[in-house]
Amino acid sequence: MSYQYHLPRFAKGCFWESIGVASKQMEISNMATKIALIFAFTLASLSAMAQNWNKTNEVRTWPDEKIPEEGHNPNLDTVRHHLKLYNNRGRSWRYVSRPADKPKKLDFKLVDSPAIDQQLNETYLASYMLYEKGNVLIDKISPLSRFGDLIDNQTKLYSMSLGKSLIGYLTGHALCLGHIESLDSPISDWPVVRDSLIGQATLRDVLNATMGHQPYLTDNETLKLSGRNLNQKSIFEIASYDLADTNPGKKRFAYGQLPPNVAVNYLAFKTGLNFQEFLSEVMSNYVGLEDTLAFNHDATLEIDGPLKSNFKATRYDTLRIGIAILNDWKADNCVGRYLKDIYATRVTKGYKQGDGFSKSYGGFFHADYSGVSDTVLGMDGYGGIALLINFDDERIVYTHAAHRNYNYKKIVLRVVEDGIM
Question: 247 CB contacts (<8 Å, ≥6 apart)?
Fold first, then answer.
């Protein structure tokens, strides 16, 4: 037997029936009004919380220890926390270049820029450097109250996507030193990848992120078959399990970590499994780094492809890499001609991937930035870390951050095109 609520029975159409019905209707109406008010109040509270969260000192975290690049406005404590987390990434750093005996000298002719100072004081920009025609014009770090206590000129700064471009630059050196014969031959000479789609790719396919690997990943880092992040596996593990006996999909641009991880380990194979010596030869003897530069890797043997395209270097040494790229292009030497080749054979992205501002990609460098007419190659990555090189005006803009809420168009794109504001 079910319990039901019944109104008193009255004769149909009588006065008391009408009073009862009207009373009940008023009760229901009042209840609906209360529910509507509660719902509206809840929505307003949630909205206020979302708007004011960034004004509190509460630190918010995400599972991958990275602040999502869009749709979030984190507070300062959250960004500071993630800057520390991001800079402490990496499982092992065994592959380290030697400091140069005679580091590349940096010349300074510093000028003031209130616009850059404002960005450093009010946004999550942590470091800003501007180099032009042989001189550092701006060399700024965020105030101590923001990020200046976390970064100085000796801090080894971590980067993932700048590492992709660095691999592209190192490939040019391997080619010019005779370790690599051609960019347009399949890399099937590498036994580790021979029986996978990777072995069917040319080195240029790898450098342009057009290997046709996208059907086998759920996003740019997660492998479909094993469900694991590809940065947690060696190239041998990926090629012999996740990509075993696979054929490439459509060879279109697909931004992510797999192509640069393939490239850096192919360099290790082609340099006789002596990547560290090759790295020192380029970074120390050629570029002239003052300090060490280290590449991340996992614990497996070099023959298995453990290297990751993530590196750590000081801000001055990262700038030195940009200067070396600029000088090679200007000199039109072997590496410079390689850089011009990868620029000439760059591919269209087709949709927003990577940095979100450039339209094409070649040799792990971004190109064809919106609003920029000069010849520019960009090392551009997560959180507002960027190093853009203008070959026409001999200018470099280098920024470091943990969240890109600063005015990128104004202080990166406009400055790399037109110079200091």
Answer: 197, 200, 212
Distance of CA 258 to the CA centre of its chain: 13
The answer to whether 417 and 371 are in contact (CB under 8 A) is: yes
For residue 62 the two structure tokens come to 């995400």
* 131 membership: H or E segment, kind and range: strand 125-132
253 with 348: CB under 8 angstroms? yes
Confidence of residue 88 (pLDDT cuts 50, 70, 90): confident
Looking at residue 282, what DSSP letter applies? I
Which residue has 């507002």 as its token pair?
384
Q: Is 420 exposed, middle or buried (0-12, 13-18, 19+ CB in 10 A)?
A: middle
Instruction: Compute the half-sphere exposure of residue 106: CA atoms within 13 Å on the CB side of its CA.
Output: 25
Segment 94-122 shows an average pLDDT of 96
Name the token pair of 336. 């410079």
Cα 235 from Cα 278, distance rounded (Å): 20
Q: How far lies 206's CA from each of 182, 209, 246, 335, 364, in Å?
A: 13, 5, 16, 18, 9
Do the beta carbons of residue 206 and residue 259 sit within 8 Å? Answer: yes
Which residues, in sequence order, are bridge partners of residue 157?
Answer: 313
Which H helix or E strand runs over 334? helix 334-344
Alpha-helical regions (H) of 144-192 = 161-176
Least confident of 34-43, 193-202, 308-317: 34-43
Which pTM value belongs to this model? Answer: 0.85
pLDDT bin (cut points 50, 70, 90) of residue 43 is: very low
Predicted confidence (pLDDT) per residue in 320-339, tens digit: 999 999 999 999 999 999 99
In which element (H, E) is residue 39 found?
helix 15-52
